[in-house]
Amino acid sequence: MNSISSIMGEQKLLPIIQVNNADDGVDIAKAMYEANLRTVEVVLRSEKSAEAITAIKAALPEMIVSAGTIIDEASLKIAKDAGADFIVTPAVTERLLTALTACGLPVLPGVSTVADIVLAREHGFREMKLFPASLSGGAAFLKAVGGLFKDTRFCPTGGVSESNYQDYLSMSNIFAVGGTWVAKPEWVEAKNWQAITDACLDVK
């Protein structure tokens, strides 16, 4: 199974798309594509999120579209049926990890404690999402666990912003950061797609 870091390649930002309709999802994804981003995460937080995944895959066949906010077997099925390329979760449980390891797709499991990291490792995962990063110790936490888990790498999400993402990316055990700041709700509401492209281009 491909690692998430190998899927993302040189891309260091996993931009998060939150939408209430599929059309906005496609336009956001296109704006990100214009900024040379090829991997995005669509969070399953509305009834239209799964439709957005399918629509983005149809409109931009080269784009890798992950499904986020996978919290149980039901949402995992929705993500797979929508055509998601990989799965992102906000947390882990024994039952959820068992389903994830059997789902046939690459997975980025969400952790927030040392115990979570150990649990995910027991299921074979070596790349994880720290969520919510800012409330789970942030960069200081990731620095501390770096010595404990030398073969484990993270993608912090939640509280990551244009003002602090470089602090995370400077660390050796961080392969990417996830964030919503590159697709602010007011830009989406105003259909200011260029602002999204520009924000994505600013991430170096």
UniProtKB/TrEMBL annotation:
Origin superkingdom: Bacteria
Assigned EC number: 4.1.2.14, 4.1.3.16
PROSITE patterns in the cross-refs: ALDOLASE_KDPG_KHG_2
Pathway in which this enzyme or protein is active: Carbohydrate acid metabolism
Keyword Signal: no
GO function terms (MF aspect): (R,S)-4-hydroxy-2-oxoglutarate aldolase activity; 2-dehydro-3-deoxy-phosphogluconate aldolase activity
The family this protein is said to belong to: Belongs to the KHG/KDPG aldolase family.
Name this protein carries in UniProt: Bifunctional 4-hydroxy-2-oxoglutarate aldolase/2-dehydro-3-deoxy-phosphogluconate aldolase
Species of the source: Alteromonas stellipolaris
Gene that encodes it: eda
